[in-house]
Design a protein that fits this description.
This protein is 21% helix and 26% strand. It contains four helices and ten strands, in the order H-E-E-E-E-E-E-E-E-E-E-H-H-H. The chain has a five-stranded antiparallel β-sheet, with no helix packed on it. The longest helix is centred in the first third of the chain and has 22 residues, at 2-23. It is globular, with a radius of gyration of 23 Å. This is Germin-like protein. It is found in: Secreted, Extracellular space, Apoplast.
Length: 223
């Protein structure tokens, strides 16, 4: 019995020693990369934002107004995304959350994209949306659903997902994301609008397209 108690105490001691190491893991990235600088002359950035002196913080640092207002939709894909993140609501710094409003024109869509640093939970405020996400290789399984007002759908972190307005009128959705700066990679813009451009031969083979078609697509997405 004494031997069992000793073994149990040994396990507890090991957990006590290793738990602080587990907690001290690296934080999640808040930007695409953070290359180390040998000297301050190379410029100093942090993985996040500098903190304001708490004595100078006001309620306005935690406040954003106007998200109830519809946004004009002028993009070729038929949607406008209004983000509330650490760049325009400074109090979000270090809190690991942000918000977006998405306005969809009739037949508009928020095209296939991914958030490299966040899971997204979306609720439909107005209209009807077809939404979905695709799992990673090799299965590439599509999970899709038609959402009406009040319906909620979750897009796991890093997976390609989309929303399309399939209703007869404009649509509105709100989404929360599990990062103060989730990032967004729109697949078509990234692949065909890269700067400098990706060699068309590479894309032609990847997408099984004629190189001339790839060049045409690249011209459409030139910034």
């Amino acid at each position: 019995m004494a031997m069992k108690s000793l073994s149990f105490l040994a396990v507890l001691s090991l957990l006590a020693l290793t738990l602080p190491l587990a907690i001290a893991s690296d934080p999640s990235q808040l930007q695409d990369f953070c290359v180390s600088a040998n000297t301050s002359a190379n410029g100093v950035f942090v993985n996040g934002k500098f903190c304001k002196d708490p004595k100078l913080v006001t309620a306005d640092d935690f406040f954003f107004s106007g998200l109830q207002n519809a946004r004009p939709v002028t993009s070729p894909v038929g949607s406008t995304v209004t983000a509330v993140n650490v760049n325009n609501l400074l109090g979000l710094n270090t809190l690991g959350i942000s918000l977006v409003r998405i306005d969809y024109a009739v037949n508009g869509q928020n095209p296939p994209h991914t958030h490299p640093r966040a899971t997204e939970i979306l609720v439909v405020e107005q209209g009807t949306l077809l939404v979905g996400f695709v799992t990673s290789n090799p299965d590439n399984r599509l999970f899709s659903k038609v959402l009406n007002e009040g319906d909620v759908f979750v897009f796991p972190e890093g997976l390609i997902h989309f929303q399309a307005n399939i209703g007869k009128g404009p649509a509105v959705a709100f989404a929360a994301l599990s990062s103060q700066n989730p990032g967004v990679i729109t697949i078509a813009n990234t692949v065909f609008g890269a700067n400098p451009a990706i060699n068309p031969t590479i894309l032609a083979k990847a997408f099984q397209l004629n190189p001339r078609t790839v060049v045409d697509l690249q011209n459409k997405f030139k910034k």
